[in-house]
Amino acid sequence: MSLKQQLTHHLLNVPGWHTCRKILVIESDDWGSVRMPSKEVYDEFLRRGIPVDKDPYCRFDNLATAEDLEALFDVLTSVKDKNGRYAVLTPNAVVANPIFDKIRESGFTEYHFEPFTETLKRYGSSHEGVFEMWKQGVDAGIFHPQFHGREHLNVKKWLRNLREDVGFTRQAFDLGTFGLTQDVDPNLRRNYMGAFNSALPEDMAYYDNLLREGLDLFEQLFGYRSESFIATTYTWHPNLEKSLKRYGVKYLQGMVVQKIPLDDDTTFTTKKTNYCGRKSAEGLTYVTRNCYYEPSHYKEDWVADCLNRIAIAFFWNKPVVISMHRLNVIGSLDKDNRTTNLTSLGTMLHEAVKRWPDVEFMSSDELGRIIES
Could you give the CA distance from residue 286 to residue 332 in angstroms, rounded to a whole number? Predict the structure, then answer.
């Protein structure tokens, strides 16, 4: 790591809330959302000349299987903190996915969605019993979902481009996904993953309904209200926070940097002051990421980098909040992806406990409550 990078990591940990406790949180986005449906679909994309191998999400990401969860839970329960508590993952979940058949029947004019638990049933034997495993992880205190959105999708833009047959959008739809990026489809100005990429008044009203439905469905599925939220692609307009607060959200996950739409998915501005513990204009508390474990994205010594960032955070008496997207623990498309990354994750967690014996594992909403208190 260069001297400039070291200095940047130190400076990012100076502002905001401080604590003498060695708190470590692991946040993982995209749970519940469809991405690449199967290895067979992946191979079909390549057969059609659509370069899905250029994007790590298309290469590795899928709804987690029972085998994925079992391997992840084995790692989390292999290490304990000073209180005898296992490592905790905060899987940030979208609770719904598109119903592709009904959308096609409408001529791509109407959007229909289903709970992700119904999507799991469509994915066959490899996903049988998966939601039961989610609940087992919740009961064991190692898997504590929080809200990422109703779906990981810019619905309006997606339907419009389906009607206009833009790029590979219709082919991806026929194969059961929407998650192509510009690396795969150069016809896209931006991909469809940003669910809140508009500031138009009519879209803000739509988002209010979406958040109400999504948070209510989250509570129906998990039996508790999500107190924290992270916007898809770290992009949202501050007016969205009025709805979040209205429906029970208290804490905003994310990075120091927030991308703010100024119109309808065309022009954006950037805010760079969402430091941990600070309040938004609506009084929501930022729980900010300062550490990253994302080995599926590109090759790097992620264990060393993560431990270095942990050391810097603890030096400044800051909680450690690690970003680790779902694709890093998925093995149904590439088993080595899951095996290698989870082995390294276990190494990192064991080394963290060894170096800082007073470390405490917890979920994002728990950290938010500690900051507030």
Answer: 34
- Judged on CB neighbours under 10 Å (0-12, 13-18, 19+), 25 is buried
Q: Is residue 86 part of a domain?
A: yes
Find out whether 6 and 316 touch, Cβ atoms under 8 Å. no
* List of E strands, 126-267: 146-149, 228-229, 251-254, 258-261
Radius of gyration of the chain, Cα coordinates, nearest whole angstrom: 20
What is the value of pTM for the model shown? 0.97
Q: Does 314 fall in a domain?
A: no
Answer for the pair 293, 352: CB distance below 8 angstroms, yes or no: no
Number of domains the chain contains:
1
Q: 329 with 344: CB under 8 angstroms? A: no
Give 53's DSSP letter. G
Distance CA 91, CA 351 (A): 23
Task: Give the model's confidence band at 20: pLDDT under 50 very low, under 70 low, under 90 confident, else very high.
Answer: very high
Instruction: Name the 3-class secondary structure at 259.
Output: strand
Q: Which amino acid is at 372?
A: E
The whole-angstrom separation of Cα 196 and Cα 148 is 11
Residue 319: inside a domain: no
Q: Tell me whether residue 324 is in a domain.
A: no
Please give the residue range of the domain that contains residue 158: 3-307+330-372
Q: Which amino acid is at 281?
A: A
CA angle 179, 182, 187 (to 5 degrees): 105
Look up the CATH number of the domain holding residue 184. Answer: 3.20.20
Dig out the tokens for 237 from the structure.
Answer: 């307009």
pLDDT tens track for 259-304: 999 999 999 999 999 999 999 999 999 999 999 999 999 988 999 9
CA 274 to chain centre: 18
What number of residues does the chain have? 373
Estimate to the nearest angstrom the gap between the alpha carbon of 153 and the chain centroid: 13
Nearest to 313 by CA among 280, 271, 352: 352
DSSP 252: E
